[in-house]
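> example.struct
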């Protein structure tokens, strides 16, 4: 079947607005957010319903071509960018962005996979509830992509990753059949949990078109602290103390080093880091009866008594709180402005975070003592963004290649030695496939390939990302 015939069939099925071929409009879909990869595609498909997704899958599958599902195109690992063959259609879910329903008694939100995270948060909020998922790219990241990468973010410590929030799913499989499992059940022990296969699969098993997510009572109260740290403050011990002393009301425990903070546009708020960096801690609750500020203050005093913090600031109003979060959330932007960074999204058991920081710094210093590190992350989840800043005068992509081959393996080896992972919350995509080969348990990898083969023997869905089918 010629490409023109396929395009004509797709136009008949999705309408002209559902099939973009004009290079002026397709360009943005073909390059990953960090501009590491640029792919080619015969067209960008923009279905408006699950039925249209089915038609697209059937037409493209029958023609022996491939599909790359795409949400907000914010993948850090090239998980939503087509390859250069020109044989993969991008399927953007951007026109499937309806909130289907909110169940205020069951605390659930049913929605299309193309809903932007910020809009999903608002829908929950409008119903007097909270969707406990927030991250820097929430203004553009879409639910399907967040599920595909099992995104984490800023409140994983208390509420978990996307996987933990997922109750139901709707997905179009590579053969055009539709998995309809949009049930709002908390308990459903009726065999394999098939919906979870799509989480972290980065669109390699099918196209997620809808989801049911867990909500929580509206987190109307918050207590937020900015805590400049003494040198070598023991982060894991501090976290354990805070969890204990706050009765686990802690929803964020973010660590920022002095260098990372220095990348963020200054403000008059006086927020600074101590010798050991800084912590941004938040407690949240839906009840007025819990004196959150007192609980936080009491716990912080204990950190001070042990000499682990230099001083501390409790946000006294929403403006101050928002400023603390702005400082944290704009670090990736600050890295870009400083010339870019090479990102290592590693995780280790929480008890190994402190050792990783020490040994990681030794590895980097031994490689090149002039390198500057932008380290920050969700210490509450054992997740560090251990980023190396591109030195002035270095070309970003060439530098990235060098770090990838020479330095990154040493950092990933260190994480592996500590039973950690080379990707904590950013996925595998196309960029980290080699790492999966190197660090994955061989039986796990083989099982992943078997799962891929079972769902997608023809390798129609996002071929080239994560794993290949068998044979
Ligand atoms: C964050 O925590 C994101 O801000 C981005 O996961 C991390 O850009 C990064 O390295
Ligand atoms: Zn992160």
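> example.seq
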């Amino acid at each position: 079947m010629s490409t023109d015939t396929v395009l004509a069939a797709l136009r008949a099925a999705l309408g002209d607005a559902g099939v973009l071929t004009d290079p002026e409009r397709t360009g943005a879909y073909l390059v990953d957010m960090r501009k590491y990869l640029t792919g080619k595609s015969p067209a960008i498909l923009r279905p408006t319903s699950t039925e249209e997704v089915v038609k697209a899958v059937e037409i493209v599958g029958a023609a022996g071509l491939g599909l790359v599902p795409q949400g907000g195109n914010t993948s850090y690992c090239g998980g939503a960018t087509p390859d250069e063959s020109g044989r993969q259609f991008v399927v953007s879910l951007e026109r499937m962005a309806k909130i289907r329903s909110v169940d205020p008694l069951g605390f659930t939100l049913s929605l299309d996979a193309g809903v932007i995270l910020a809009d999903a948060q608002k829908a929950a909020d409008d119903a007097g509830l909270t969707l406990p998922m927030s991250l820097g790219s929430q203004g553009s990241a879409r639910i399907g992509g967040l599920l595909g990468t099992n995104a984490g973010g800023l409140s994983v410590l208390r509420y978990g990753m996307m996987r933990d929030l997922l109750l139901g799913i709707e997905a179009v499989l590579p053969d055009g059949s539709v998995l309809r499992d949009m049930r709002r059940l908390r308990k459903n022990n009726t065999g394999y949990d098939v919906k979870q296969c799509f989480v972290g699969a980065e669109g390699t098993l099918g196209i997620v078109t809808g989801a049911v997510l867990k909500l929580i009572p509206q987190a109307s109260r918050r207590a937020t602290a900015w805590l400049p740290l003494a040198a070598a403050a023991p982060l894991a011990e501090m976290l354990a103390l805070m969890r204990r002393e706050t009765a686990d009301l802690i929803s964020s425990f973010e660590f920022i080093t002095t260098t990372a903070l220095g990348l963020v546009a200054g403000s008059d708020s006086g927020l600074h880091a101590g010798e050991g960096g800084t912590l941004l801690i938040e407690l949240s609750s839906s009840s007025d009866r819990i004196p959150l500020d007192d609980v936080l203050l009491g716990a912080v005093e204990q950190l001070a008594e042990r000499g682990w913090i230099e001083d501390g600031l409790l946000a006294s109003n929403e403006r101050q709180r928002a400023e603390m979060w702005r400082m944290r959330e704009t670090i990736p932007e600050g890295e870009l402005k400083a010339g870019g960074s090479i990102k290592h999204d590693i995780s280790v058991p929480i008890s190994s975070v402190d050792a990783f920081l020490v040994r990681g710094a030794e590895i980097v210093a031994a490689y090149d003592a002039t390198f500057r590190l932008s380290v920050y992350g969700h210490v509450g989840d054992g997740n560090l963004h251990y980023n190396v800043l591109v030195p002035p005068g270095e070309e970003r992509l060439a530098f990235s290649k060098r770090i990838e081959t020479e330095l990154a393996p040493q950092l990933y080896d260190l994480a592996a030695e500590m039973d950690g992972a080379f990707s904590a919350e950013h996925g595998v995509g196309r960029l980290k496939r080699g790492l999966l080969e190197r660090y994955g348990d061989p039986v796990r990898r083989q099982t992943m390939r078997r799962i891929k083969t079972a769902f997608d023997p023809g390798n129609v869905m996002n071929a080239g990302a994560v794993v290949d089918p068998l044979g």
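> remarks
The pocket of zinc ion (ligand 2) is lined by residues 378, 385, 425 (CB under 6 Å).
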